[in-house]
Amino acid sequence: MMWRRKVAIDLGTANTLVYVAGVGIVLNEPTVVAYSIENKQILAVGDDARQMLGRTPGTIIAARPLKDGVIADYSITEAMVSYFLKKSIKGFAMKVDLMISVPGGSTQVEKRAVVSACKNAGATDVYLIEEPLAAAIGARIPISQASGHMIVNVGGGTAEVAVISMGQLVEYKSVRGAGTKLDEAIMHHMRKAYNVIIGERTAEDVKMKIGNAFLDSAKDEDTIEVKGRDFQTGLPKVVHVSERAVSEAMQKPLKTILEGVKDVLAQTPPELSSDIVDRGIVISGGTGQLKNLDAYLSHYTGVAAFTAEEPLFCVIRGAGMAIENLDSYKEAIR
Q1: pTM reported for the whole predicted model
Q2: Does the domain at residues 4-134+314-332 carry the CATH identifier 3.90.78.10?
Q3: 15 is in an annotated binding site
Q4: Of 36, 55, 34, nearest to 44 (Cα)?
Q5: Looking at domain 147-177+251-312, what is its CATH homologous superfamily?
Q6: pLDDT at position 129, please?
Q7: Is 119 marked as binding a ligand?
Q8: Distance from CA of residue 307 to its chain's centroid?
Q9: 13 marked ligand binding residue
């Protein structure tokens, strides 16, 4: 029996991951909550709730309580954090030290909302770590050195671009709407090009299966069968969509992420810029798994880019290392 547990949570727009000190990553579920409209009673959280997206009757709402990386629905987020803590900590714990990741540009109001939600959910002490720093720690970048490292943490709600030196963010920009904007672009393209309406779950599946940020023109293309509803007749419809069509649909939101990277590079002091040219750009986050995203950024910035190992787990690994070694990461923690 342990009286005090150390826990880290990566509360993302698309996925929530939980790390328990001494155990490792114990939970990875979608950040989705299903609740009753009448009394706001929570009916399902995580995987079970994601199955309900777009499939609920009028009395039940299945929704993502975080929008663009920030708490959009306070009480629902609180209930969700409480659920994830109970599910992760098996047995009894008197006190829970909780490390939670927040977007780098979070305001004091947004940070207070996160701390308050976590304390109401059962945490004793709450520490905040900025996502780009957590991602860099998790990607095993030596952030405490006096040299420039660039990380692009592409999640569901935000793409966070940061240059880190001596354990602090030197330059930072948050691009709102990363993975979710790619899904929306695919939904829009399906409606415009094929007259087919699809839901966000289907769009996400298409992105994960044949999404390609930077298509090689000489390569044979994959195609995927997409099922949806015909916009004109309202009847079910099946179409085959090519990898090139999906790639073209995603170019606008990808360009927004690229502009964010270029803006940060333009603001970076020259000494740190030369370090970044030597070391390259590190890509992390769930959307960092998008095929050829590294090639896309390399091509348009002229700086080598590479995807971190297991990009989805970078932030949670970094937050976990920080809660286990609080003294070592004091500079990075708020």
Answers
A1: 0.90
A2: no
A3: yes
A4: 34
A5: ATPase, nucleotide binding domain (3.30.420.40)
A6: 93
A7: no
A8: 15
A9: yes
